[in-house]
Amino acid sequence: MAGVVSLAVVVLGSVVLVTTAPRWPEPRLLRAAKARSGAAVDAAVPHVGRAFLAATVALASFSVTLITCWFLGKLAHALEPRVDVPMFAWFRERQLDGTWHALWSELTLMGNRAQTQRIVVVGAIVLAVAWRKRGFWIPLLALPAGYMFEKFGQMLLSKSVNRGHPPTTLGTWVSGGCARLIIVYGLVIFLVLAWLGVRRRWWVAGWCLLGLLAATEAYSRTYLLKHWFTDVVGGVIYGTMLLLFMIAAVKVLDRAVIARRAAGNNPDELGAEDLPQSHVTIH
After folding, report:
1. CA 50 to chain centre
2. Distances (CA, A) of 259 to 41, 83, 107
């Protein structure tokens, strides 16, 4: 029931979000932040280069992510007797053999290293072809980089937090399955939607799909006793932060490419919706 109810809440919430998305006004603060960050990127790229700026954004954000998750890991370790141990006992007492256990044993594979590695390789190649006019090398860099950031960051966190693991497994802080799923699947969704140039409703639907996948992975890792509960929460937070900073780095690269092409000899290859705001004239 816990799994059914939690996933049903995610599905119903997603339906509401996708249905109402076209009616949402864009917050003024968000609009202003996007304009300022875009102007800053346009001003900085000619001086430091788009690759250096994107790498700076990624590495700085990665450092913030690690520091934040290290503090959260220490907090999770302190909460272990009051949160993790009771949750672990609750799920262990309610294990079901047969179809239910087999189902979640299959679903949890979505976040395993072998599965996500295949998605990184196939996704990078397919999206490089799709992005060939926009910058084929962007997906080729973004997907492997996101995977490697997650892998080595998780290794650093597990060693530095060193909180131990449940008696049934070696899983520790943070849940790599949850983090890998969010960063890899999230980047694929972002790159596909950015290439398609879809409207807000499709963006909301894409992120809701990612939320459903993440909720499935989080429940499976908890139900199958692969992690402490707070490890799973930490994996979701860690993966989300990684995804956000990788999207920011990709946007730096993409915006710089668009600005360079718009200033070149073939600006007509791009639609007005593809241009940075400073290059769009509204009549």
Report:
1. 22
2. 10, 50, 42
3-state secondary structure of 137: helix
End-to-end CA gap in the chain: 56
**Other Cβ atoms closer than 10 A to 204:** 18
Distance CA 212, CA 33 (A): 28
The pLDDT tens digits for 238-264 are: 999 999 999 999 999 887 566 555 555
Taking the C-alpha atoms of residue 279 and residue 268, their distance in angstroms, rounded to an integer, is: 12
- Retrieve residue 15's tokens: 């339906």
Q: Whole-angstrom Cα distance, residue 112 to residue 245?
A: 22
What mean pLDDT comes out for the span 66-73?
96
* Better pLDDT: 257 or 68: 68
**pLDDT at residue 259, rounded to an integer:** 56
Q: Are 122 and 32 in contact (CB under 8 A)?
A: no
Query: What radius of gyration, in Å, describes the C-alpha atoms of the chain?
Result: 21
